[in-house]
Amino acid sequence: MADPGRTGPPESVLPPQAPAPPAPPAPPASAVADPGALGLAAFATTTFVLSWFNAGLIDHGVEAVVLPLALFYGGITQLLAGMWEFRRGNTFAATAFASFGAFWLAYWAFARTVVPYLVRFPQLHQATGLFLLVWTVFTLYMTVAAARTTGAVLGVFATLSLTFLLLTVGAFAQSDGWTRAGGWAGLVTAVVAWYASFATVANSTFRRVVLPVWPLGGAGAAEPGQRPTAPGRPVE
Fold first, then answer.
1. Which has fewest Cβ within 10 Å: 90, 119, 150, 165?
2. What string of DSSP letters covers 208-227?
């Protein structure tokens, strides 16, 4: 009962409410940095060196210089970049880096073990052409998917598709001209991939867009250095 001599509002008969629980802390940012710059650099470097030989700019007698790059940088390093992209939930980049890492590892094994065995057969060029053909098919459909990433990444895949196509025709036709054309296309591919790598690492380091990569509107696509809007989407 309220006190008749009291002028304030009556006391509540309800028990006091417990204070609201504190808001949960924001989830920590991903501990895995963007491996795209590393994977693109590994791909560009190895492609550049091999393309010098394919373009006829250097004597094929010293072509073995590409093998250590194919094994350690183009192969193992790119494969690791692909695994980190899986950790980040980026299906496109994971598939691309892991596959092309495997390509360079397979190239190393092909040059070291298969070519010395098949060199006595006149069909060696057909084996080489078949090896390149399957990678042409893979690169072509990855180019379709790259149309939802960035202009820089699409440029890499478009020029790489042309490179593989020219090299495949050159191998099957035993044509030095087609192979040299593929070598020049490979040099262009390497330069575009280096640009994409440079843009990725520069934009991430400066935390702003230093070099454009031209996002193509894919869900979650963003300039390098920015987080995508949703996981598992095209490359940043």
1. 119
2. S-SS---B---TT---TTS-
